[in-house]
Amino acid sequence: MPVIVAANPKGGAGKSTTTLVLAQTLSKLGASVTVIDADPNRPIVEWRAGASASKIRVIGDATESTIVRTIREESTRNQFVFVDLEGTANRLVSRAITQADLVLVPLQASGVDARQASRAIALIHEEEETLAGRQIPYRIVMTRTSPIITTRIEREIIDSLKSAKLPVMRNRLHERQAYKAIFVRRLALHELDPLQVNGLTEALENAQNFADELVDILTQNAEPRGSEKKKEAAHA
């Protein structure tokens, strides 16, 4: 089943938020989901501790020596496996990337984030060399963007990414109060109270569009390999 890895050597780029928003949205649609929280701060493990109603399976004890086995076991168990990696480049990160059907590279609109994202992409290409040339699909994800206006720096970064012919997801993960609230209140997006969280309806729509695009990408990537099993899983 599809393995989606969130990677960027820079902390605070939005890896955990991207991972949890996608996992919650797909789970709400009825898909079985595992999240492997490999961030040393364990933000998704902490979220899961209070999210008693969630069906998302969260694993927080994967190590450098067990990460590949854990990913493979979970990919036989559930329809989607997400891996939230720590903000550094190490052997655990590298080994997780080799197992990915898609690597998401979260990126905020800043020069520092852009440079660190380029390190993540370089790491992906390095791991491709160890896999006898097998390509590891990836997409850059713009995070914490304004839902109303695209800033000048954001436009410049996106234009530079496109000029370099780097794949960027069409949908962006906007700056929304709801995305912070899920960690604070340990709830899923759809469990939040719209009277207490501003812009919840818009956040849910943003998350749904984001998840829809992810499924489309996974389906397109699976088709050239003739993997009907993965195609069915992506549409579940």
Automatic annotation (TrEMBL):
Pfam families: VirC1. InterPro entries: DNA_Partitioning_ATPase (IPR050678), P-loop_NTPase (IPR027417), VirC1 (IPR009744). This is Chromosome partitioning protein. It comes from Granulicella rosea.
